[in-house]
Amino acid sequence: MWSRLYWLAVGGPLAAGLLVMGADPGPLADARNGLFDLYQRAAPRAYDPDLPVRVVDVDEASLARIGQWPWPRATVARLVDRLTAAGAAAIGFDMVFSEPDRLDPAAVVGLLPEDVRAPVQTALAGRQSNDEILARALGESPSVLGAVLTGARTGAAYPAKWGIAAAGDDPLAFVPRFAGAVAPLPGLAAAAKGIGALNWLPDRDQVVRRVPLLLALDGRLVPGLGAEALRVAQGATTYVVRASNASGDEGFGTKSGITAVKIGALDVPTDAQGEVRVRFTPTDPRRFLSAAAVLDGTVPREELEGRIVLVGTSAAGLMDTRATPIDAAVAGVEIQAQLIEHMVTGANLVRPDWARGAEMVLTAVLGLLLALVLPRVPALAAGVAGALVVAALAVGAWLAFTRLDLLLDPMGPGWAVLGVYLMGVLALYRDEQQQKKWVRSVFGRFVSPQVVEKLAENPERLVLGGETRDITILFCDLRDFTSLSETMDAQALTRFMNAYLTPMTEVVLAHGGTIDKYIGDAIMAFWNAPMDDPAHARNAALCALAMSARLDALNVEWRRQAEAEGRPFAPVRCGIGLATGPCCVGNLGSDQRLEYSCLGDDVNLASRIEGATKSMRVDILVSEATRDAVADLPFLEADLLMLKGKSRASQLYLLAGDAAFATSDAFSSLARRHAALMSSYGAGLFPLAHATAEALAADGPERLSRFYALYAERCRDASVVPAPSASPG
């Protein structure tokens, strides 16, 4: 199973991502809004000039023609009359008439010198004030005045022109709340058909993305300007607010907020706070009519008749500009106009209340799937899969926007998947390096460097828990080691053992063997584990020949050293036993210490065969299974022995030489003579067998001379039977 570090590594970014998504901090919301803005810029709502909304703009041209703002209320009244006469369905003002007109003639008279003030006052006697003129115009038109809600109590009158019907939870619990208002003058407010709040609620980056349809003022609901203009245009009297747990809404008792506001014949979906996320169009000059042109009567009637007309200003000096997801600066009144267009066309742009929960569940599922898959596939494949998942998230979010009008955030799941991938790859890389380090430390002493590197690069080849496989086992033991060690002190014995074991180990490793252990002067090795070796029996046999030859070379060197030092020298001999068969190979030992080793009956057999080399007076003996597994080496029958610990006799064989010797005439002759010896000895023809054995001992291979001498000794006494097995070592 994968390491605890891996799960900590992948679990960390996944848990952090879920926590951040759940907390939804400001920077995350800003990034999400930025992404949704990109969606709108990539696929904005197309402007339709036939929509029943127009903006009468107090633009720079109007200021140049009429004069600086604010204009006299009589001029505003004349504008209202023009719009009413043209058949406007509703006239909304994106401005607040909260103070008396300072340009009213009566107010201006007070600024005149006293010597001329009286005649002017006499001339103006009985004349309506500008505010009264505007009130009259408002009363004769489908007018909607603007107001601004504030956090401080003002005591200003804010008459309700509408009714509110609510279904479900109390909507007052969800909408933005305000304590006071900057409202129109009482006379103007009384005359108008509606009053709408101008408040806009920008996000942290001051971009207007949502416009409220309803707000709370001192414990009651009041509509926004766009909603109120739409109500007045339809001649409706009541807003129907549907909130959570209304009939038909599955709130399951959870107070999740407002779901929709019905304005006349239009049912407008909202977010939980009663706000509409507007699907904007780029600003378009066809939406605007110059206020001066309206006053001059040069605007075609069809541009105004039956339309909702909003009066506002785009003049730069009046500072009424806002930023939208599409445009960096638009007139504030245009946002109200686009809100009404959004509602009239049935456009919808919603981030549903279930979106965050769904994104968190998706994040958890994708993160866990990636964490489970990552260790099973190459890092590159996992990276490609992760990139495809992120791309699928982005495509899915884009399709949700363009086809379902849903705003879903692919960034949270995407970043979490990326974090899981990066941290998982790092953890797996660390585990891989640790595993390679462990492989090198464990097997570096027992197999060749080339094999170690193969294992380090492909650790999956190791079955460390244990597996049964056919292997060839080699035991090599020095002859008369006890007597030899008695002639040396501890330091000399250590030097001798190092001088002997080092080259012998090199031979084993060079032939692809795995050193299992050193048992005093004995070496145990095996082939075909941990790396596969189809020719394991052959390689083990060649290793045995090479070890015997290397010991001969060491004896030459040791003799030279002894003669140089003037001390006696006795040749060092060894016995090597080979056996082949199924064994359990893997990490064996205890919880405190494990070693890569092997267990099985053939391990014991190889040890017993090595012990038999002493009584058989040869350096190499192999089992019948080893002989059968190697086709090209020269083997000769040795004897059928009852080995210690075995219930039946084992047929053993001599290894006479290498593959080249097996094809030589010398081996052909040796094999015939050896077969004749075994045949006559087995038939009890001891004199003939004796003569053959002595001849082979005299002119046969030198390394087998002691073996044939043994058979000659047996034949000299007719009572000699095949020798019993000797103890190892």
Give a brief description.
Helix content is 46%, strand content 19%. The chain has 729 residues and is α/β, with parallel strands linked by helices.
**Percent strand:** 15-25%
Helix share, percent: 40-55%
What integer is the average pLDDT?
86
Number of helices: 24
What is the straight-line distance between the termini? 43 Å
Count every beta strand, where a strand is a DSSP E run of 2 or more residues. Answer: 26
The Rg value, from CA coordinates, equals 51 Å
Low-confidence stretches: 719-729
Main β sheet profile = 8 strands, mixed
Q: What structural class is derived from the secondary structure elements? A: alpha/beta
Properties at a glance:
24 helices; 19% strand; alpha/beta; disordered C terminus; 8-stranded mixed β-sheet; 729 residues
SSE layout and pairings?
Layout: H1 4-23, H2 26-42, E1 53-58, H3 60-66, H4 73-85, E2 90-93, H5 105-109, H6 114-124, H7 130-139, E3 143-150, E4 163-167, E5 177-178, E6 180-182, H8 186-191, E7 194-197, E8 210-212, E9 214-217, E10 220-223, H9 225-234, E11 238-243, E12 258-263, E13 266-269, E14 275-277, E15 288-290, H10 291-296, E16 308-313, E17 321-322, E18 330-331, H11 332-344, H12 355-373, H13 379-404, H14 411-443, H15 449-457, E19 467-478, H16 481-486, H17 490-510, E20 514-519, E21 522-527, H18 536-565, E22 574-589, E23 594-599, H19 601-616, E24 620-623, H20 624-629, E25 635-641, E26 650-655, H21 659-662, H22 665-682, H23 686-699, H24 705-716
Parallel strand pairs: 1-15, 1-16, 2-3, 2-16, 3-7, 4-11, 5-9, 22-24
Antiparallel strand pairs: 3-6, 8-14, 9-10, 11-12, 12-13, 17-18, 19-21, 19-22, 20-21, 22-23, 24-26, 25-26
Helix pairs in contact: 1-12, 1-14, 4-7, 9-11, 12-14, 13-14, 14-15, 17-18, 22-23, 23-24
